[in-house]
Amino acid sequence: MSFSANQGVLSTPPRIYYVNPLLLQGIDAWREVFDHAADTGFDRVLTAPLFDRGGERSVFASQDLNLLDPQLSLGSAVKYGVGRLAEAARKSGVALMMDLMLDGKAQDPKAGFHPVDPRRSPLDPAEPMTAMRAESQSRLLEEWTERLRGLTGLGISGYRVLGIDRIAPAAFKSLISAVREKADAQFLAWTPGTDFGARAAVKDTGFDGCFSSMAWWDFDERWFIEEHRVQAQLGWQIAFPEPPFARRIAHGTESREILERRAIRALRLAASLGGGLMVPMGFEYGAAAPLDPTHGNGAGLRGCAMILLSISPPKFALRTPRPARNAMRRPHRCGSSATPTDRFQHCCRLRWKTFVALRMCGSSCSTGTFGKVRPLR
Questions:
Q1: Which of 7, 109, 135, 166 is the most buried (most CB within 10 A)?
Q2: How many CB atoms within 10 Å of residue 345?
Q3: What pLDDT digit, counting tens, does each position of 285-309 carry?
Q4: DSSP line for 314-335
């Protein structure tokens, strides 16, 4: 079984590094993340929405779509802030993508107090698009068409689209085609957790790829095969070792060795079976605390890693933090003069870089770290 892709905007399997923008503050923190992603082997950085939340809301519940969230310290103007991010990403050699939730606008605070339903995830919209009137849906789509044209013109290369089961397929087709009239943009459908019927309905709407639910597969149930069959017409089926904003693989009381093996196995499976790879920030540090859609310390990549690890101490690390941006790099040695820690960090770095940089070609490759591995057929 191979995860082939339709011919479209994407010509190679995407290698995506996913970030929570609340953990980054200022353009320098973003530059460090872009350099980190490129150095590790990724070609795209995907961020959760950057818009103003109007308080301690979820990043997926934007209060003002015309402003950036002040916690990001990128200025309030979308044109200025997003333009700087896209330019910084290009200089680092990666493309910048952003999450898209068409019905992700937060509840208007002037509408009065609305108690929080503890059964609902903070990622859920305040008002699903399916609950809107037809004229409201039409107006919302027109606004998003113009907004996405502007964001794409600023340098956003693509979007991970959430809530495909809450919007009519015809609306997606109209939106995607209208945006691409101005510039090429990649659209990836977030399919995990949606009905197979909803996935089949969007196969001809213009999506370049979707996401595999392999992270939840028990290696026994046949729904995984059925999912592959249903999603085969959606383009790349991108896999991930652990989903963003969810329980970490490193969470648990098992030993470091067991958790490390579990993470490496999940990473290898995601790259071997998936048509592309997405890794959430912190995974490479063995972080046990999940990304929080409502809170972030804004301390940058290394600060983010330290905070994550201090909340839930790591059991392993697949990647060692870089000493500083643009610092002179010394070659990693694994000879007799190296200490056990040096050898371990060296092997972790080689393992991670070899895996991410070489395994994404979608064909057989041979490496001394993992041996020869091929996609299942």
A1: 166
A2: 17
A3: 888 888 999 988 877 676 555 554 4
A4: -S--SSPPPSSTTPPPPPP--S
| Helix ranges (DSSP H) in the chain | 27-40, 78-92, 134-154, 169-180, 196-201, 223-231, 256-273, 300-311, 340-358
- DSSP state, residue 77: B
Report the alpha-carbon distance of residue 368 to residue 359 in Å, rounded: 13
Which residue reads 């991410």 in tokens?
356
Distances (CA, A) of 95 to 90, 103, 104: 6, 25, 24
Q: Considering only 131-135, 209-213, 342-346, which range has the smallest mean pLDDT? A: 342-346
Write the pLDDT tens digit of every residue in 304-361.
555 544 444 444 555 544 433 333 233 333 333 444 334 334 344 434 543 443 344 3
Angle 134-154/169-180 helices, nearest 10 degrees? 30
Two structure tokens written together for 64 = 């003002």
162: which DSSP letter?
P
* Tokens coding 26: 């200022």
Tokens of 271: 């790259």
CB 211, CB 192: distance < 8 Å: yes
Whether 294 contacts 58, CB under 8 Å: yes
Bridge partners of 16, per DSSP, are 44, 278
239-258 confidence digits (pLDDT tens) = 999 999 999 998 878 888 88
Residue 105 pairs in a beta bridge with 62
Q: What are phi and psi of 372, to 5 degrees?
A: -90, 125
The whole-model pTM stands at 0.80
The answer for residues whose C-beta is within 8 angstroms of residue 14's C-beta and 6 or more apart is 43, 44, 186, 188, 209, 236, 238, 276, 277, 278
Strands 365-367 and 371-373: antiparallel
Residue 246 has what DSSP assignment?
S
Contact between 48 and 322 under an 8 Å Cβ cutoff? The reply is: no
3-state helix, strand and coil shares in percent for the chain, rounded to the nearest 5: 40, 15, 45
- Residue 333 phi/psi, 5-degree rounding, is -110, 145
